[in-house]
């Protein structure tokens, strides 16, 4: 019989994690009614807090077995094999995967059809700030002194600084990455804050251009990374704002969200040399390169 004595005996034959699993299965089989009650109570205790804190968000909560299994499976699916040189811990890569999971839901319209406007992350920034970012990027590339980000600290510059829709400030380096492949909409306001003109989204790799890049690159092209297109976006090899690069397929490269952010954060430049992508860091040292795969057909 599988009584307590049998269970204690099993402790000498199994590693800790395997024994923990065995105990759980034994408890469920020994008293299924208690197991059912435990699940109902767990449903009542389920909660999730995503609270803003210094430089980020603090996540805390408790999930049922069903929700936890679903989340872990999704995170595993969105966590590719680490590329060469990726020194992130498993926890860090799992945090990235959680953000990627949310972006997949939003960017692929998976939140249902009940909304008139698809949910999205919005960033408000003035034209002057965008121009200043371009000037700083050019100066950094030419090893020149960096110009000021703003003409001065005034009530206007504080109120109109780069910010998410809820007013949370956006760091310059993150804004540079978001501007690379986000939709750019122009809104011109009059002196009374009335809307005078609304532009259109432009210079993004969408539709046929994105499909062509996916057909050519197949996955994230950062050296050693094989993240699938579902968690990738188009990156302008010659930056759209800084270098006046076009949005043609030949100027686009597929990068996963983590490596797209990594390229901007670390100042990595990408060049095409003899039919291959070449990645160089801020010192000019080559990070690696990948040969262009041929399009199918």
TrEMBL record:
What Pfam families does this protein's entry cite? DUF222
Q: Which stretches make up the HNH nuclease domain?
A: 208-261
Q: Where is this region: Disordered?
A: 145-165
State the superkingdom. Bacteria
Signal peptide position in this chain?
A: none
Alphabetized InterPro entries for the sequence:
DUF222, HNH_nuc
This one is known as HNH nuclease domain-containing protein
């Amino acid at each position: 019989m599988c009584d307590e004595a049998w269970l204690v005996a099993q402790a000498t034959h199994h590693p800790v994690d395997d024994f923990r699993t065995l105990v759980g299965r034994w408890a469920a089989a020994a008293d299924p009614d208690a197991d059912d009650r435990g699940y109902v109570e767990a449903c009542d205790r389920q909660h999730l807090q995503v609270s803003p804190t210094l430089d980020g968000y603090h996540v805390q909560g408790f999930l049922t077995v069903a929700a936890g299994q679903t989340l872990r499976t999704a995170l595993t699916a969105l966590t590719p094999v680490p590329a060469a040189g990726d020194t992130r811990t498993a926890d860090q890569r799992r945090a990235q995967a959680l953000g990627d999971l949310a972006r997949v839901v939003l960017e692929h319209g998976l939140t249902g059809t009940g909304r008139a406007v698809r949910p999205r992350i919005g960033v408000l920034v003035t034209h002057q700030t965008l121009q200043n970012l371009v000037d700083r990027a050019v100066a950094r590339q030419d090893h020149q002194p960096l110009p000021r980000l703003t003409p001065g600290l005034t009530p206007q510059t504080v109120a109109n600084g780069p910010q998410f829709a809820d007013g949370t400030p956006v760091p310059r380096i993150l804004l540079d990455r978001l501007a690379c492949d986000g939709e750019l909409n122009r809104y011109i306001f009059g002196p009374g804050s009335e809307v005078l003109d609304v532009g259109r989204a432009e210079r993004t790799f969408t539709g046929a251009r994105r499909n062509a890049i996916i057909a050519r690159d197949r996955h994230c092209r950062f050296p050693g990374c094989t993240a699938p297109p579902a968690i990738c976006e188009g990156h302008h090899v010659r930056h759209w704002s800084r270098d006046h690069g076009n949005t043609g397929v030949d100027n686009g490269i597929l990068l996963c969200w983590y490596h797209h952010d990594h390229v901007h954060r670390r100042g990595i430049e990408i060049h095409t040399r003899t039919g291959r992508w070449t990645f160089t860091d801020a010192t000019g040292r080559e990070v690696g390169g990948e040969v262009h795969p041929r399009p199918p057909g």
